[in-house]
Amino acid sequence: MITEKETFKLKNKILAEIATMFEAHLKSGKIANPDDANEIVNFVNKEIDTAIHPRKFTRAVQRFCEKFPAFAMIEKKLQSMRLELIQQIGQECIENLMEDAPDQWEALSEELIQGTEDTLGSWLAKLPEANYTQFTVKVFHPQEA
Q1: Distance between CA atoms of 17 and 74, rounded to whole angstroms?
Q2: How far apart are the first and last CA of the chain?
Q3: Cα gap 30→32, rounded to integer Å
Q4: Any alpha helices (H) in the chain, and if so which ranges?
Q5: In this model, does residue 145 exceed pLDDT 60?
Q6: Angle (CA) 29 78 76, round 5°
Q7: Cα separations (Å) of 78 from 10, 11, 90, 129, 134?
Q8: What is this structure's pTM?
Q9: For 129-142, how does the pLDDT look when each residue is reduced to its tens digit (9 = 90+)?
Q10: What is the rounded distance in angstroms from the CA atom of residue 135 to the CA atom of residue 142?
């Protein structure tokens, strides 16, 4: 799944967000019990940080946000970062259409900006074959792009 792969690319940013929120919650007293703090640290270390597969990482972050509601904002930030990354890759993959087919570029660009993860499939279906291939290579095999 594209979104899981993109989520995994954001692993270090997500861990940094969790650390920042954790420190803020400690300072504000939202996390006052040392056992709760240890449970959070252990979950992050054992489940999120060690995840080596996109699906495992995505599920670990989801479970973390469900188990520790004070960190629910992480999932929203993650969705936002993931969408931004997909939009960036999408824009890179349709740049050539700017000169070759400006109307098509404008329509695709607008749809990409206004789209969500749920509409990504329909957006991909509208891409010319070469652009579709470029997008999938950048997402699934970035080392080859």
Answers
A1: 7
A2: 19
A3: 6
A4: 2-9, 11-28, 34-43, 54-67, 72-94, 97-100, 102-114, 120-125, 129-140
A5: no
A6: 65
A7: 8, 10, 18, 30, 24
A8: 0.71
A9: 989 998 888 877 66
A10: 10
